[in-house]
Each structure stands twice: as structure tokens, then as C-alpha cells.
Design brief:
alpha/beta; Rossmann fold; 2 domains; eight-stranded mixed β-sheet; His_PPase_superfam; His_Pase_clade-2; hydrolase; acid phosphatase activity; disulfide bond
């Protein structure tokens, strides 16, 4: 069930990690990771508390699944990591050391950055501790840079004033799947008068209450598996039309990070006129180009924009607002669960299996190797030559092909 919680799902591998093909070795790693599981944001928590209050005003409860509500008090924290979320980042640090230990020595530790939100900073710090623990404390990375979210920041999505929201799309889907649930709960809780938005809020309480207390919340049992699939789609629409391809100015918010990624892969200075901080990116102290392991910590919305800027997870058609396509590849739980991670590997391959000797790139999202159809010459092993990968990123290399200007005009 937790894999139907959309962006509130705990991390799980979307596929088993595939080692590089014979003759290829990873020579550089670029990790982009979402913060771990957290309490609700202030606005979400306020909305949840209001919906709980509305349900509690029922005169009585006619179904045993609701009896816990009478004595339930909403008392979750705000914004910060929960202990489970801290553990997620610690575990990720262990996994990444074990997988990429060959890239690390005392003179070549991972370069770690974090966007300046407490939960993101804490996630980065927990990752470094997990990394150090896995190395028996032989290698202890440090958080080298915290990027101020009030200024230019390629790890947060706040710099496009004219960007739209996904409210209209999510409201449309909510009006499709929530009425039946609201009717049932109002029947079992006479006097509550739950509205459609209350259903989304109460369903959100299931993952938040579960991860905060590390046991399945009683709120989860109020809804069927089919209803949870509808909730998953609610989250899918939220991100697809908020920061993804359904939002005209969604992908452009990921351009700055992609241009930083290209700089690291090629060892060349950053070329960007969007979200990058020129002062930070022009300094070898705050943006080194000679590392083998880079680790950046960010937010789910920004990761969605970065997927869009790269060209990952393109859908044949925009997500339908009333009929989910079961064949879609856009599932928030696989794209941006808590502690989600995108890894861009740079590899050096010798001339084996018909492959030319040289540098290659492949991308994994939550360990799922991405096909990269946008990159000429990519085959089933997911490898694209570095030259072709750089060439494929014209959207980023042209600073969003005019979309960045639309953020302000």
C-alpha cells in the first residue's frame, strides 16, 4: 500500500541496480537525492487538522473502522524530518559507499551540496554519516555547501514567478474519485459533512501518521486499494501539471541543474543564464570540476523539473484528468518518493561488444536504468556517448529555448 502514496511514499528501488556492462567502469557519479520522510508542511498540516476536526464533529460513528477517530488528536510536527526520514538518508549513504567505493580515497571525497531547507540539510548530513559508517569511518565526507533558497538555487524551484499550478487538474480528478468515498464516510459519520478536499487531506494523513510513528496508521484502513490507486494518480497529476511536462514552465526550472551536470561531466565551466549562482559556480571551492563523486540534496518538485529538463519520463500524451492510463510511466512513487534519488554515471568503456572506446553516460532513477531515447545511439544497456548526451541537452544548453524569459514576462 505504501507504494500508492505518490510523493509521500517511502523510498523503494523501482528496479534492481544493474552493474555497468563488461568493459565499462564508472569514473564519476552525480547523485541528486530528495530529502527523507518528513512531517507535513505548514499549509498541508493545517488543512489536515481542519479535515480531522470536521470528521470528529460527527454525532457518532456507525462503522468500527472509525471508532479511533473520537480519541484521535492531530499533533504532527511541521516540515522537519521524522526519525524514519533521517534513517533513509543514512541508509542511502551506506548504499552509495558500497556501490561506488572505488571512486573514493582520502584525497577524493564526495563533494556534497544541499538546498538550504532544514530537512534537506539534515538529509545531506545523515547521508554523509551513513557513507562514513559504511567505510568504517575511513572516509568522512562533509557538507561543503548549503545553497540559500532565497537566492539563485538549482536545487529548489522557487525562481519562476509566472509558473502555474496544478490545482485545476487535481481538483478535476478529485471530483471524480472523492464523491463515492465522501458519501461512504458521511454515511458512517453522520454530521461530519466531509467535502471532497477533506478526502484528500485524510488520505494524506495515512502516510504522514505512518512514517511519524513507524507503524501503519489507522487512517490507512479507511480506504480500499482501488481508492489508494486513485490517490496515487492525484499525486501524479499534482507533479505532472505542477512541475512536469503538463506545466509549460515546469521543466525550465530544472535547466540550471542540468547545465551544472554537463559542466561536471565535461570538466568545463558552467554555461547557464537561468537558476545558477554565477559566483558559486565560477569558484573551484564552491563548484569544483575535478571530483569523482558529487552528491546534491533537493526537493521532489525540483527533481520533477530536472527530469523534464533532461527529457526523462516523457508521456505519449498529457495525463488524462478523468481516466488514468495504467500503461503510463509517470508514477510519483517511482519518480519522487521520500529519499528519491537520480544518479548520473559517467563511464569509461573499452572497445568491447562492438562499442567504441570512450566516455559514456547513463542515468538511473531510484535504481531504474533510464532508456534515454532523446540521446542518439543509446541502446538497451542505457549507455550514450558523452558527446551525444551533451548534444541531446539542447533545451538546457539554450537556457530553456525561450521559456526562462516567460517566467518573468
Amino acid at each position: 500500500m505504501s507504494q500508492l502514496w505518490a510523493q509521500y511514499s517511502p523510498y523503494y528501488p523501482a528496479a534492481e541496480y544493474k552493474a555497468p556492462p563488461p568493459g565499462c567502469n564508472v569514473v564519476q557519479v552525480n547523485l541528486l537525492q530528495r530529502h527523507g520522510a518528513r512531517y507535513p508542511t505548514k499549509s498541508v498540516g493545517k488543512a489536515i487538522a481542519k479535515s480531522v476536526k470536521r470528521l470528529k464533529r460527527a454525532k457518532h460513528f456507525r462503522d468500527s473502522s472509525l471508532t479511533f477517530v473520537a480519541n484521535y488528536t492531530y499533533a504532527l510536527g511541521v516540515d522537519d524530518l521524522v526519525p524514519f526520514g533521517a534513517a533513509q538518508s543514512f541508509e542511502a549513504g551506506q548504499v552509495h559507499y558500497d556501490r561506488y567505493a572505488s571512486l573514493v580515497d582520502k584525497g577524493m571525497l564526495p563533494y556534497v551540496r544541499a538546498s538550504g531547507s532544514n530537512r534537506v540539510v539534515d538529509s545531506a548530513l545523515n547521508w554523509t554519516v551513513g557513507f562514513a559508517y559504511a567505510s568504517d569511518h575511513e572516509y568522512t565526507p562533509v557538507l561543503s555547501l548549503i545553497v540559500d533558497q532565497t537566492s539563485n538555487d538549482t536545487l529548489d524551484d522557487h525562481q519562476c514567478p509566472k509558473v502555474g499550478t496544478s490545482d485545476a487538474q487535481t481538483d478535476t480528478w478529485l471530483d471524480v474519485f472523492a464523491p463515492e468515498i465522501a458519501h461512504r464516510l458521511n454515511k458512517y459519520a453522520p454530521g461530519a459533512h466531509l467535502k471532497h478536499k477533506d478526502i484528500a487531506n485524510l488520505m494524506s494523513l495515512c502516510p504522514f501518521d505512518t512514517i511519524a510513528h513507524e507503524r501503519i496508521s489507522p487512517w490507512c484502513g479507511l480506504f480500499t486499494e482501488e481508492e489508494w490507486a486513485s490517490y496515487e494518480y492525484y499525486g501524479d497529476l499534482y507533479d505532472y501539471y505542477g512541475n512536469g511536462y503538463g506545466q509549460p514552465l515546469g521543466p525550465v526550472q530544472g535547466v540550471g541543474y542540468v547545465n551544472e551536470l554537463l559542466a561536471r561531466l565535461t570538466g568545463q565551466p558552467v554555461q547557464d543564464k537561468t537558476q545558477t549562482n554565477g559566483t558559486l559556480d565560477s569558484s573551484p571551492v564552491t563548484f569544483p570540476l575535478d571530483r569523482k563523486f558529487y552528491a546534491d540534496f533537493s526537493h521532489d518538485n525540483q527533481m520533477i523539473s530536472i527530469y523534464g529538463a533532461l527529457g526523462l519520463f516523457v508521456q505519449p500524451h498529457n495525463l488524462d484528468l478523468t481516466h488514468p492510463n495504467a500503461m503510463r510511466t509517470w508514477f510519483d512513487s517511482k519518480l519522487v518518493p521520500f529519499s528519491a534519488r537520480m544518479i548520473t554515471e559517467k563511464l569509461y568503456c573499452t572497445g568491447t561488444s562492438g562499442r567504441e572506446t570512450g566516455e559514456y553516460v547513463r542515468i538511473l532513477v531510484n535504481d531504474d536504468l533510464q532508456p534515454m531515447p532523446f540521446c542518439r545511439g543509446t541502446n538497451s544497456d542505457g549507455l550514450c556517448t558523452l558527446e551525444n548526451f551533451v548534444e541531446s541537452q539542447q533545451y538546457a544548453r539554450t537556457n530553456g529555448a525561450g521559456d526562462w524569459e516567460l517566467c518573468f514576462n
